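Input sequence (265 aa), recorded before submission:
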Amino acid sequence: MKTLIGLLFILVSSATYASEGPSAQKLKKLRVMTYNIHHCNPPSAGAKIDVEAVARVITKEKPDFVALQEVDVNTERSGKGLHQAKELARLTGMHYFFSKAIDHQGGDYGVAVLSRFPILDSTRLILPIDPAIGGETRTIAAITVEVSNGKKIIFASTHLDLKEPNRLTQSELIIKLFKESGLPVILGGDFNAQPDSKVIGLLDQNFTRSCQECKPTIPVNEPNRVIDFIMFKPDGTFKSLSTHVIDEQYASDHLPVVAELQVNE
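Predicted structure, token format:
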């Protein structure tokens, strides 16, 4: 992702698991998931951490990419020695990259991506917070992969702030940085914003969402809000074929979203 180095980007070495991924060949479709996993803590299960439950949801859908939010690494609440992104990669047979947002209970907390394809580059981007209003540090986990012979794309995961002014500033930076990339981009995440918000309106001017009439993703019981989205840079590379919200009410407090994208050569 050499075109995105700078402007708060910190280039780090990629972490990978599992096999070499799909063979390099012409690819016609990609299956993409975004999932806020609530640090693998099922809301109905007290303090229990159930990484296997989240892995089952992912494995059943057979995605090529997963954007994960609310991921714990070595925290007290999730277990010292448990790297949730790494463990989900192992359980699903995928590659992974984790991007820390904050220190939490002696460990790290942030976002991550899973990929069927080997990771060529991985980048952590720190998103801005207005010091006058405060807020929790947020980041982007972005990877570069080769999805077919000579065709590279960027896949990224993010989780925007709870306060709208911060979300707007964060969205502006996301737009700026990905515009500067010469590669196609797919972005998934928990945007903490609904379709009629200023944030999604701004992003809609620069990205194409996989759905326009998107189904609610939260709460898991009788969901009534849409805040989890998959979107891509409108450069002609991708076309959305379908988007569905999975009715999985145990593993997290968000419902996962899966989109099927056509890949145009």
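Checked by second reader. The chain has four helices and 13 strands.
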